[in-house]
Amino acid sequence: MKLILDPSQHFQTLEGIGASLAWSGDPVGETWSEAAKTQLADLLFCPERGAGLSGVRFNIGAGGAWAEESPLDPWRHPKCFKRTAESAFDPSCHEGQQWFLRAAAERGASCRVAFANSPPLWLTQNGRATHDKSESQKALTTNLKPGAEPAFAAFLAEVVEHFERVGLPFTALSPVNEPQWAWEDATQEGCRFSNSDILALAHTLRLELDRRSLAIELDLPEAADLRFLIDGQAEALAVVCEGKLCGHGYWSYDPPEESRRIREAVRRAIAQHVPGGRFWQSEVCVMEPGRDLGMELSLRVARMMHQDFVHADASAWFWWLALSPYDYKDGLIYLGDNEAISPSKTLWALGNFARFLRPGWRRIFVTPTEADGLYVSAWCDPAGEQLALVAINTTDQERTLELSESYALTPHITDGSRDLVPGEELAPGERLLAEPYSITTWTPSR
After folding, report:
1. What is the H or E stretch that residue 239 is in?
2. Residue 64 needs a FRET pair 20 to 30 A away by CA distance; which of 22, 216, 273, 402 works?
3. Residues 428, 416: contact at Cβ < 8 Å?
4. Which of 308, 331, 360 is the last residue of a domain?
5. At 300, is the secondary structure helix, strand, or coil?
6. CA-to-CA distance for 303 and 349, rounded, in angstroms?
7. 65 lies in a domain?
8. Does residue 153 contact residue 120 with C-beta atoms inside 8 Å?
């Protein structure tokens, strides 16, 4: 297949590719050995020995650990930097996540996001970090106490200030998470917010951040499904989104044709309601049971990334759990007893993008981008001097690619037996081979 490249035509600038430290970051960071934690950090964030993730999401707990007497999963109900309104800020809270946040920063993860799933217990109407099924709670648009926006904003700003002081500044702050869901007796922390609730909180939060001279972006609305961005959210939130809309890609990634349609619609909605704005795919995993370390899931995820980048112009892309103890398709690395570590092929799928496409890189024109199970995107560094080409071959046939421009390139291959393994250098003009069921990133030969 002949690929036509035009480096002079460029699209979005990449800001980060990463994953979340919920829910395992705290217990693992607090109890595992230094050697095991270092191995995990290297696998996730090291550009030489691991996937090279450039982004990380830090969960600001609401204190559910103190309200749920016998939760099915204690890890999903974390503590909080403040136990009550009168309590002093506890800088040792989330010690485990803080360990991983620092390790990520030391390995080059410059895109760092703090996100809250619920207001702290002392600011919720029912004293819990999730909604009840009571009739009175069902009638509420949010669990945040009436008039508590300034207190919630002050708490979030205090968190941001803490990380500024310890030399780990966040680049973005997400005050709400999937606000469309009911979150009634949820197995994790969560809080719904109507559009008007979000507008009121965002306005108050921006004023508080500005008052403290904290230059940080707000991530809104963290839509639970990308289709919420298409169905009115973009227009309603354009006044506070500050040039960026964030959404979660759950349930919208299959089949590939429908996935493409939804992402093209997201791009049009942002162009219409937020001219010049950016889109972040800020959370996703495959919502299916069964721990999966294999290549089939990895190819699905790589194709999802491709379609978010190419059809929605995503400038950042985040997987859900960096570390998972669950029997679910939600983790990059799976955890077991006695500090057992099982990296998934999905980790390396992200690595085929993240290790080579660093913050500041731009997507450039290439055609075709999709053809019969093959997905191709092209990128260049900020100076426009270095090229990276990513090809995802979801078929059982070898695919040969011929570039319109001549480059000396080296492939880096992820397949059933290899994890980002470099192949033989190719001379300028030599054809590129995308092997069956593989993800390959070509970069300039050194």
Report:
1. none
2. 216
3. no
4. 360
5. helix
6. 9
7. yes
8. no
Structure tokens at 293: 């370390």
Query: What would the two tokens of residue 410 be?
Result: 């080296």
Q: CA-CA distance, 430 to 433, in Å (whole number)?
A: 10
Encode 312-350: b = buried (16+ Cβ within 10 Å), e = exposed: bbbbbbbbbbbbbbbebbbbbbbbeeeeeeebbbbbbbb
Q: Report the domain count for the chain.
A: 2
Kindly report the length of the chain. 446
Same domain, 313 and 378: no
224: left (phi > 0), else alpha (psi -120 to 50), else beta?
A: alpha
Predicted confidence (pLDDT) per residue in 115-135, tens digit? 999 999 999 999 999 999 999
Contact between 135 and 40 under an 8 Å Cβ cutoff? The reply is no
Q: List C-alpha distances in Å: 141 to 181, 235, 240, 250.
A: 11, 20, 19, 23
Sign of the alpha-carbon torsion through 47, 50, 56, 60:
negative
> What's the pLDDT tens digit per position in 63-95?
999 999 888 899 999 999 999 999 999 999 999
User: DSSP string of 259-289?
Assistant: HHHHHHHHHHHHHHHSTT-EEEEEE-----B
Phi, psi of 113 (to 5 degrees): -120, 135
Structure tokens belonging to residue 181: 């869901």
